[in-house]
Design a protein that fits this description.
alpha/beta; eleven-stranded mixed sheet; single chain; F-box domain-containing protein; two-stranded antiparallel sheet
């Protein structure tokens, strides 16, 4: 005999399901096959479109099983792959076991999912340590920058290998570590996988409209996984020009590679409309954050991609001046309709002795976009070392990588500090 709930038509079961948490829906489906059939559409299916996958052998084996023919895991549209940063050697032995599993799961999606594609693919890293029972748990702190950067590279390479093997298209968005702080991908690894001779061609990313990527120069770390501030950086008072002076080695490496090489990547994504680069068609928006480059490369880059909206945050020039950049933004011939400039120097964030500085943050849109942007540097000392030190500390956390004694990957990505790049919806484990 059917229970009262089982006797309800599917049109009445669905409103009940929409008011339940995902775990409660899963429990409800286990009560009977009749309820399972009636509660497995609509709202329940929408939960299955988002999934976070950690790169552990057990999780990936379940991922492969869930995406086999006829399984509801084939409804996946938004996939987040999370690499594991661990400070013990057993992590590396486990990593080789699961290298082929993501490719198998992606191959299942290519064959059995309704769209034969992913809408978005996001890459993340999380820190884990082994507890007394042998399980992996999030630590209270994690200071090994070396292991975070290794996990970043492993995660990226595993994901790209899976896409190559399966030829699974990503039709909307690729997010390469843009949603977390305290780590980024070595630029040469990213460029190597998107070079013209790479097999990651237009078939995979040809329809992608949004690229979010956090890149850095290859880190030079000591055995503890950190770099130390120089003596000059720890002094109490420095000038405004010194605040924005780049460290030559890594920053000049970025200047000669990142913006020039990104232009060679763009033909792989001919429909790209939005680029968010942390560190060909007409772009609607472009955000450059924490980039160290030259005047000529920056102007050439903006001229080549011709975005309508430009955001420049902590963009430092190792040669040239901001004048030509501002001239491009305000030119009547440029397609720029709005821009936001922050910490490109130009009310000032800090007071300087004997001089009143203009704003270091400027946002314009509408009729003010084409107004001239005057700017100058101050050679005077910053007043108020506490305020300046807090500002420098916040910039080191967002753009500096693991080069401070205070580096803590877990703290940087706690709920009150995490930068969320997008809101595709709620992911479910």
């Amino acid at each position: 005999m059917l229970s009262l709930l089982e006797a309800l038509p599917i049109e009445l079961v669905e409103p009940i399901v929409t008011r339940l948490e995902f775990s409660d829906i899963a429990s409800l489906r286990l009560t009977s096959r009749t309820i399972e059939a009636k509660a497995s559409n609509g709202c329940f299916d929408s939960f299955l479109k988002h999934k976070k996958i950690e790169l552990t052998t057990k999780t990936l084996q379940l991922f492969v099983q869930a995406t086999e023919q006829g399984r509801r895991g084939c409804l996946l549209r938004h996939c987040t792959i999370t690499g594991i940063a661990r400070s013990d050697t057993t992590a590396h032995a486990d990593s080789t076991k699961h290298e082929r599993l993501p490719g198998k799961a992606f191959g299942n999606l290519k064959r059995w999912s309704p769209e034969s594609s992913l809408a978005s693919l996001s890459l993340c890293v999380t820190a884990r340590v082994e507890d007394s029972k042998g399980g992996l748990v999030e630590p209270g702190e994690f200071r090994s920058g070396r292991e975070v950067w290794k996990a970043t590279l492993r995660t990226f390479l595993v994901a790209m290998a899976a896409l190559r093997e399966s030829q699974l298209p990503v039709t909307e968005k690729l997010d390469v570590f843009g949603s977390i702080r305290g780590c980024s991908l070595a630029c040469d690894a990213f460029l190597a996988n998107f070079a013209p001779e790479s097999t990651l061609r237009r078939h995979i990313f040809g329809s992608s409209m949004r690229l979010i990527v956090s890149l850095s120069a290859p880190p030079k770390l000591d055995e503890a996984g950190t770099e130390h501030e120089s003596e000059s950086e720890s002094e109490g008072e420095i000038t405004a020009a010194e605040l924005h002076a780049p460290r030559p080695a890594q920053e000049s490496w970025q200047a000669h590679r990142i913006l020039q090489e990104i232009l060679h990547v763009l033909p792989t994504m001919p429909k790209l409309e939005s680029l968010d680069l942390h560190c060909y068609p007409h772009f609607r928006e472009c955000s450059l954050r924490g980039i160290h480059t030259s005047e000529s490369d920056l102007v050439h880059f903006l001229s080549a991609i011709r975005p309508a909206t430009v955001t420049l945050t902590d963009v430092r020039l190792i040669s040239g001046t901001y004048g030509p950049v501002f001239q491009y933004l305000t030119s009547r011939d440029s397609p720029v309709t709005s821009y936001h400039l922050d910490d490109v120097l130009g009310t000032s964030k800090f007071r300087y002795s004997g001089v009143i500085m203009g704003p270091s943050t400027l946002s314009r849109e509408g009729g003010h976009v084409k107004e001239v942007i005057p700017y100058c540097f101050s050679s005077r000392r910053v007043m108020g070392s506490g305020e300046r030190n807090r500002w420098r500390r916040s910039k080191a956390q967002e753009f500096g990588g693991p080069d401070r004694d205070a580096y803590d990957f877990v703290k940087l990505n706690s709920e009150d500090a995490t930068i969320v790049a997008d809101d595709d919806g709620s992911d479910n484990d």
